Amino acid sequence: MTNLNLERVELREIELPLVSPFETSFGRTTRRRILIVRVFDKTGASGYGECVAAEGPFFNHETVDTAWLITAQYVGPLLKQARLRTAGEVNGALAPIRDNRMAKGGVEAAVWDLEAKLAGLPLWQHLGGVRGEINCGVSIGLQETTEALVEKVARELEAGYQRIKIKIKPGKDIQLLEAVRARFPEITLSVDANSAYSLNGHLGTVKQLDDYNLLMIEQPLAPGDLVDHAKLQREIKTPICLDESIVSLASARHAQELGSCRIINIKLGRVGGHTEARLIQTYALEHGMPAWCGGMLESGIGRAHNIAMSTLPGFTLPGDVSASQRYWHEDIIAPPVTVSQEGTIKAPMGDGIGYEVNEDRIESLTVRRETVRLT
């Protein structure tokens, strides 16, 4: 395979309005500011990535603005110095930058897309994926009323999704599950708290969740915490799934050894890119821990990378990769991501991410841009 010879990184910020607001325990999103990363080789070939950092520092410490600064002022110079030959070397080259994994992950994903294109392979095959079709679940944000939630669950089940996940927070939890389970007693159901609970203040409530036959309770306690999650897991029957607490292979190993969770949600940006994601899913598979791919309200570029990652052998549960039309009136890739009536997405067979990026649409949506030279 031809060695990489990177020339430049192009950053663009675009704005996309969501089809409908998405609300979690830490906020409500109506439109997304998205950082698109494009990496060019000296051959003229290019690869696309997406930094999934949000508008504010509420999911984690990163934002679109901090990621832009880190990429332009620190990621670029380190890549220039490293003179990379393969995408697998990006993770190590950027290791001197502490944390800021979403900033690093957006660039790393773009380099993997570029390398797959140069190799003439679909990205999912280039990464070592083993399945040409992935199983899909769906994440449903907090709704205005319990009735609205139940109706939204019904619509998503009609669309074919294999697993329903609903967002919860203190005061909006047990009554939601009562209503959903009354209408749909047999569906595969999970909840996501986005760190809204505490061990001392909400143990009784979390214990009640055991009554609703849940696949998992996602990140009930503080982001980064492993010790209290281990204590909580010993108190409840339902498997805990960790999201914000798993940022690397090391934290996945610590969680497994402490008994902090039984399931892992792997988000490409949260762990810093494909290289670290592959290490985590391999570890999870070796230790009998189901893993799945979480979502961050990505555009089609980030969604395409999630599809590729979800084909790896460790991803054994339906993830949050869902159809473009759930989020965007018009995506920035063609064709848009679609989900079959059976709740699956076919991994595309085109080179790289396998979707055509609509450069004209990105241009029309661009609110700022910057080029970082690597030569």
Topology:
Blueprint: E1 6-24, E2 27-41, E3 46-51, H1 64-82, H2 90-93, H3 101-119, H4 123-127, E4 133-135, E5 137-140, H5 146-158, E6 163-167, H6 174-183, E7 189-192, H7 199-208, E8 217-218, H8 227-235, E9 240-242, H9 249-258, E10 263-266, H10 268-271, H11 274-286, E11 291-293, H12 300-310, E12 333-334, E13 344-346, E14 356-357, H13 359-365, E15 366-373
Parallel strand pairs: 5-6, 6-7, 7-8, 8-9, 9-10, 10-11
Antiparallel strand pairs: 1-2, 1-15, 2-3, 4-13, 12-14
Helix pairs in contact: 1-3, 5-6
Tell me about this structure.
- It is a single chain.
- The chain is an alpha/beta fold and 375 residues long.
- The protein has two domains: 6-120 and 359-373, Enolase-like, N-terminal domain (Enolase-like, domain 1); 126-346, Enolase-like C-terminal domain (TIM Barrel, Alpha-Beta Barrel), CATH 3.20.20.120.
- Helix content is 36%, strand content 22%.
- The protein is built from 13 helices and 15 strands.
- A seven-stranded parallel beta sheet has the order 5-6-7-8-9-10-11.
- Helix 6 (174-183) links the parallel strand 6 and strand 7 (189-192).
- The longest helix is centred in the first third of the chain and has 19 residues, at 64-82.
- The two termini are 22 Å apart.
- The mean pLDDT is 96.
